[in-house]
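If your schedule permits, I should be very grateful for your opinion on a structural question. What I wish to show you is a protein chain and, alongside it, a tokenised description of its three-dimensional fold. Would you kindly read the sequence against the tokens and tell me how you understand this chain to fold? Here, with my thanks, is the record as I have it:

===
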Amino acid sequence: MEIKSPDETLYSMLFEHAAVGMTQVSLEGRFIKVNKALCDFLGYSRKEFLECTFQDITHPDYLRGDLENVQRLLDGKANKYSMEKIYQHKAGHFLWGKLTVSLVRDVAGEPLFFISVVENIQDKKVADFSLLQSEQKFKKIVELLSDKMAVWITTNKGKQILFVNRGFANIWQLSPLQLTQNPLRFIDAIAPSDKPKIEQLLNSSPYGRLQADFELNIGGTIKSIEFDRFDIFDEDGIVRSQVYVAQDRTEEIKTHQLLKNQNARLKKLAKQDSLTGVNNRYEIFRCVQQEYKRALRHELKATLVFIDLNDFKSINDKFGHIAGDEALKCFAQHLCERIRDSDKLGRYGGDEFLLLLPETSEQEAQVLVSRLNLDAVSCKSQDGQHIPISCSVGMCELSEDIESIERWLEQADGNMYEEKQQSSE
């Protein structure tokens, strides 16, 4: 068992039971040790703190200044630094804290870690909110947050405006004066589908945290808004004002949807044959593999149909490769329009196609294939010439003696080859 010196024991007690937040931070910015006061202040557990860095809980507007001060300590240009900055609580809202940081070095003068003291000054900042309208520093901070963020502060249950930033004009296309004259004017532009919900929330919750998403309709332009309202209390715990924050997430949502669509398209392309639009070799093989396992596990019927176009080389030689591609596309489209929703069609390679018929016996498959009218496939070349298309078909019903997917494919392919040989005789 490790025996601590009296000094170490005293330090541990002071660290843990301090009224202010205290933490040890590595040179890389990761938390090594945190006390209860800091956990209570920002809502993170000790374990959660140890899994993040001080950058993760610092508001972006204050990160650069914080990092510059850290570098000054490491360069030996200062012994410690203090600054007021905004921290992000685990729940998502922001809190003011006064940070004091010193660097601990070893006997050789090499940096070991940082000791940080975080004092909760949220109440102090709240006490100054009555001066917000005249404090240029606050206004500058709010204005710099984002052109896509509207911030306004009200009192008297939202009936009187204390402050409005220019972000409101950017989003709502209304002047701050118009909101001042009517603090509920921001509701008018909410899309009809969302307006009743927001009105109900505001009426039923005059106080307390309120978060919602809604759309604005500004002259026909739809904007996606993330809305937040929280209370500011006085020394007696009475709500003295409320802060409204509305962020325009339109471009972010559009970008997200674009990426989602692109990913879906790429995912589809990864499964699709680029010429015919049916499943490619990889995807049809995956479907066969999946059905093979499912059918054997649940003792279901399944039939695999191997289709090969006859004399396809002669089509390319006589009409050209473009006409050959068109023939493949016509043939694939002909099949797609006639197979069942549960069936899977894929281009196995070149002029070969695989048709997977789940829960279908070979006898039933023969009936289905006859209904495909494979002899009626029609295609024309670019100059209008009729391109003759015929095919050979082989099928194989899955059974217990088929020990692998490869064997299932071989038997269907072999049956197709036999038919091709018979038709050529």
The chain has 15 helices and 14 strands.
